[in-house]
Amino acid sequence: MTSYSISPQPGPSQETARTSHVALTPSPTDADTDDANRQAMGLAFEHAPFGVVVIGSKTRHIKIANRFARELYHLCTSLPAASLTGKQVDDLLPWMESDEILTQLSQVAETGVPVLSRFMDLPSDPGEHVGTHWGYDMVRLKTAAGHAYDLLVTFRDYTPVLQERKRAQAATFAALQRTELLESIFEQIAEAVVVRDRDGKLIVYNREALTLAHNQTVVERGRAHGERVDPDWDVVDADGKSLAKLDLPIWRAMFSGKSMLTDQLRVRKENGTLTPLLIHATPLRDEVGDIIGAVAAFQDISVVKEEERLKDEMTTVASHELRQPITVIQGHAQRLKRQLRQLTEQEHVLINPASLRKLADGMESQTARLNRLVSDLLDLSRMQSGHLQLNPESMSLTRLLERLVELQREASADHQFFIEDKVPPEHGELVGIWDEGRIEQILTNLLQNAVKYSPAGGEIRVTLDVIPRGTRVGSQARGRKRLTSDSAHVAITDEGIGIPPGAMVHLFERFYRAPNSGDIQGTGLGLYICQQLAAAHRGYLWAESRGLGHGSTFHLAVPL
What we know:
By secondary structure, the chain is an alpha+beta fold. It has 4 domains: 5-157, Beta-Lactamase (2-Layer Sandwich), CATH 3.30.450; 189-300, Beta-Lactamase (2-Layer Sandwich); 305-382, Signal transduction histidine kinase, dimerisation/phosphotransfer (DHp) domain (Helix Hairpins, Orthogonal Bundle), CATH 1.10.287.130; 389-559, Heat Shock Protein 90 (2-Layer Sandwich). The chain is built from 13 helices and 22 strands. The protein has helices at residues 31-46, 67-77, 89-92, 101-111, 159-188, 207-211, 216-224, 249-256, 302-345, 353-385, 397-411, 436-452, 526-536; strands spanning 5-10, 20-25, 51-56, 62-65, 115-121, 133-143, 149-157, 192-197, 202-205, 234-236, 260-268, 274-285, 291-300, 393-396, 416-421, 431-434, 459-467, 472-473, 481-482, 487-493, 540-545, 552-559. The strands form 5 sheets. Strands 1, 2, 3, 4, 5, 6 and 7 form a 7-stranded mixed β-sheet that branches. Helix 12 (436-452) packs antiparallel against helix 13. The termini are far apart.
């Protein structure tokens, strides 16, 4: 057997670097060294972790194949591994021509230009022990005679590399999807969230956090121009004093290593308003427990604080409104007891019936006042809990209004009542499906307010008509709405103290009383309850006034 050494050689005529050969020439060494080299070279060739074959360029048959190549041949064909040597390449793997591999063999044999780092996929599944993605190289060999050329082909299974690459790509894609999902969730969290590293550098914040920053516009303008401008939050204490950086909950959590929770702080927004916050800050730790930063969540608790304020106000109002009638009833009861004691202890004591009637009337009036207050508080509780129920039935709004006006006329002799029916003749008597008790409650409240806030002798005009569908109703201060159906309309106009322009937007809020109401009794619940009752009927309640001292008009519209 001829001994070969492998070394690059210049191509014919020494003309170009692109033509390369590998010369297999006998090594002129002494016998021992020569044998040792041949043995080492043979072992390396035979046990290489990739396939190596030598193909005759003229006959295109496989002259030499190492163990890797032989075993691969056996796995692919189930033929004996040793039978690979001597096989004709064209007959052995005819499908390779579809990948131009046979053509490449011819080109390398003719030109000497190697084919390096090419890849191919096997045309069908070769079995679980054979990869499907291979890389190969083709190099022309030159014998010592310098005439006969053989081709050296090496090939390696890149399937594990490709599979690992695909797994890495799939993992990267999955991680990207998770990141995008987390970013989407982070952006849509209702609470503001801010994260800082251990040096205090702002790492990330969400959209809600930006709305609380006092430099929101500057940050958004910077974003629009591709610039990074960090938002800043002006957190203040109960007295409105800005907190120092180290006093902020996120910094305190970072330095103390403990979570912080407080609802006593507020943030000053860009428009100058102060928003009460529930702030929860907690340190961030790495896998060994070292603090690497902190996260803070800000929750706007304006609604909670407003509810607390309203509860306190309700308690104050209820206490005050309950105390007054109770005091009156108690005083009348004590006077009545004194007169009864005189009647039983002394002879010939004359009891003035008018005095007794006055005491009884006073007690009855204050009892009615207590009853109204309790009813208002119960209605308020039902509305807040969503348990307000209506009992709609067919009723005549015309008759109800006439009856209520007549009752008020009898009870308020100092005022002049006028009722005007402007309902078109084709409608006749206004009849609809409403809760008569609740409609009566609304109209009674409006009529009593007209009396209460009007001077003695003042005129109170009540108008009944129909507003067609599509008409816009409501006050400018609270926004006008378009009616979706024909509606019965009641307007009650007085000549009273009027409504200040600034009070119109708050008029139907719980416990609100206009600043010009003075010492006139009231809880601030009546109009709120009336509006809720109107809304429960899919109707509207609104007010108009030309200003202080020019009276007001309250409107009720409920769908027919």
